[in-house]
Amino acid sequence: MKRKLWHGTVLTLLAGVMWSEFGGPPCWAEWSSEVESTFYYTDNVVLFSSSRRLSLQEDPTQPVIDVTGQGSDSVFEPDLIIGKTWNNRVGTTSLSVRGQGFIFADQSRFTHGTYGLRLEHTLPSQFTLGLRYHYGPNLFLGDNESRRSEREELVEERITTHFWTGTIEQDLGNTLTLRVLGRYGLRLYNENFAHRDTSFWTVGPHVEWKLWPEIALTVGYHFERGVADGRNEPQFRDDVFYINHYVSTELEVEVCEATSVELAFHYERNDFTSDITGDERKDATEDVFQGDVEIRHMLSNAFEVNAGVQRSQRKTSFESRPSLT
């Protein structure tokens, strides 16, 4: 009988956000910047690194995680977005670049950054076409058992992610927005886990609904398929080929003019499709649950403070390999 394993992490955060206009030469006069600084505490550094991106337009699909836990830590997240908008006869065009970091106070191997480029064009009919590129290099997933070594030893497992996203979006009046997202991506592992290299594609609809002037609801679903190299290397018995279903709901309530509360719930289901004898993921499943509560308060037109709690939990239907010491 397969035994279920539960892993959880609780994250507490405080954040400050400031927007400012760049000065300097005229060619930069219309560029703007958005700066955000966020502080977290987590009791599970492994799940924190993957679960922070459980969001419809971020990277909600988590890489394969074998070893969880590995301690608690404080994390500082700097986030910078630089953008520019052009108005023309055929609508509005926006271009932005983003740099985001996660700096761990004690367990520095988990420190990492992500980078992105986004281009959007909105027609007068409120039809928007969006393109995005995301780059997440050298993310440390933890110490894991090497399948490519003749010796049983724990080595660093790292992953680099690229994905390209396209969206089409239509506003229907002032209360309803429909969006369809599609993306293609690559997850590339370090040499000891190269058989886990995965290409994936995603498609799904999103709905944003203004229920009342003070209440907005966002609901979305993604279907994703990931194809891993391990299927062609059965000697490692580690095929992470998967089919993923992801559902997200976010409810934002404006309590007063300066304060809002956001409640969110995300669910992710992975069905692994390995048919390799001896692979622990053969006929296996994985469920990830995450809930968020966040309060935002505008201190002024240029400064916002956020506070909130995030809870993530992971359930698998397969037994983890024994840890090596």
Structural overview:
There is one protein chain. The protein is mainly beta and 325 residues long. It is 2% helix and 64% strand. It has one helix and 14 strands. The longest helix is centred in the N-terminal third of the chain and has 7 residues, at 45-51. The radius of gyration is 21 Å and the shape is globular. The two termini are 27 Å apart. 24% of the residues are buried. The model is unreliable at 1-29 and 320-325 (pLDDT under 50).
Keywords:
single chain, 325 residues, mainly beta, 1 helix, 64% strand, disordered N terminus, disordered C terminus
Assess the beta-strand content as a share of residues. Answer: over 45%
DSSP, total strands? 14
- N-to-C SSE string, H for helix and E for strand: EEHEEEEEEEEEEEE
**Overall spatial form:** globular
Q: Note the quaternary state here.
A: single chain
* SS element count, helices: 1
Poorly predicted regions are: 1-29, 320-325
How far is the N terminus from the C terminus?
27 Å
Strand order of the largest sheet: 1-2-3-4-5-6-7-8-9-10-11-12-13-14
User: Quick check: average pLDDT?
Assistant: 84
Main sheet makeup = 14 strands, antiparallel, barrel
Our Rg estimate from Cα atoms comes to 21 Å
Percent of residues in helices comes to under 10%
Provide the structure class: mainly beta
Write the layout of secondary structure elements.
Elements: E1 5-21, E2 32-42, H1 45-51, E3 73-88, E4 91-104, E5 112-122, E6 127-145, E7 154-172, E8 176-189, E9 198-212, E10 215-228, E11 242-256, E12 259-272, E13 285-300, E14 303-316
